[in-house]
Amino acid sequence: MYALITGASSGIGFECAKILASKGYDLIITARSIDKLNNLKELINKEYQKEVVIIPLDISKRESLTELFTKTKDYEIEVVINNAGLGKVGMFNEVTDAEDFNMIDINVTAMHMILKHYADVMNKGYILTVASIASFAPGPKMATYYATKNYIRSYAEALRYEMKKLKKDVGITILAPGPVDTNFNDTANVTFKLKGVKADKCASYAIKRMFKKKKFATPKWSVRAASRLMRIIPHRTSMRICYKSQSKKQK
Ligand SMILES: NC(=O)c1ccc[n+]([C@@H]2O[C@H](COP(=O)([O-])OP(=O)(O)OC[C@H]3O[C@@H](n4cnc5c(N)ncnc54)[C@H](OP(=O)(O)O)[C@@H]3O)[C@@H](O)[C@H]2O)c1
Q1: 3-state secondary structure of 170
Q2: Pocket flag, ligand 1, residue 109 (CB < 6 Å)
Q3: DSSP notation for 75-92
Q4: pLDDT by residue (tens digit) across 80-90?
Q5: Pairing between strand 180-181 and 197-198?
Q6: What pLDDT, on the 0 to 100 scale, is given for residue 128?
Q7: How far apart are CA 145 and CA 189, in angstroms?
Q8: CA atoms of 175 and 207, how far apart (whole Å)
């Protein structure tokens, strides 16, 4: 039985790959960094003696999605970790058009199509889609990232509902973490003021929730409390808090 992990070359995806191999899954891993994927393959082969299929892809390109779906069609996939994503901090006019396109192409288009495709072709199993605590409100000073994560959280929630209507035995869980210590910060050009959770802790919590087919996975009680609050306070208030905190985080 296979687990497919996007964005497996670092951070949350990398840790998910190790946990799933330790649970007996063979892996299909994707990202752009072939060297890092090869290192992960070597580590998994050595530690867990599981098969690892590498599909190097730039997931921002539509043809990469077709390639992914074609290359995985003969594997029996039971777990999908729909994880590859990135953010960028700044006022809307400080973020370049290319950066906006990249976030939308990866966090929205690729995540949407991957979730849709595997929810359709799988008869049984688990899909973890990585959103963020940012998925519960608009986010001034990181507007595109928050909007993309709102999109994928909303889409995943609706698909989860539809899967129940279709009586399909495929769980859809949304990972909505706060800060996690990964390469995300460097890509997003931020330094978190709050202490982030370790990527291995985040992955292990998320996978536990996924196997229980829970709707949300948010590691750390304080972040869970904040995410609940974000869902009930007026957006005017949450945006004020977000603007201040993103301003402090910007490098
Ligand atoms: N870290 C946090 O604080 C945090 C908080 C909330 C949510 N998240 C979410 O967690 C997910 C994983 O991020 P992370 O924190 O683990 O960061 P990360 O260490 O930067 O990992 C991002 C992964 O996405 C892959 N990726 C990026 N662009 C890609 C592209 N064009 N094509 C294919 N793969 C691509 C990267 O691989 P390559 O560079 O090798 O392609 C890497 O494996 C993201 O969806 C992020 O939004 C992170």
Answers
A1: strand
A2: no
A3: S-EEEEEE-------S-T
A4: 999 999 999 99
A5: parallel
A6: 98
A7: 13
A8: 9
Q: What's the token pair of residue 75?
A: 């594997």
Residues in the chain: 251
- What tokens were used for 93? 């006019």
Ligand 1 centre distance from Cα of residue 24 (Å):
24
Ligand 1 nearest atom to the CA of residue 13, by list position: 16
| pLDDT of 246 higher than 90 | no
Of all protein residues, the one whose alpha carbon is nearest to atom 46 of ligand 1 is 85
Give all domains of the chain, ordered by start, each with its CATH number.
2-249 (3.40.50.720)
The atom number, within ligand 1, closest to the CA of 182 reads 19
Q: What pLDDT, in 10s, does the model give residues 205-240?
A: 999 999 999 999 999 999 999 999 999 999 999 999
DSSP, collapsed to helix, strand or coil, labels residue 36 as: helix
**Ligand 1 contact via 179 beta carbon (within 6 Å):** yes
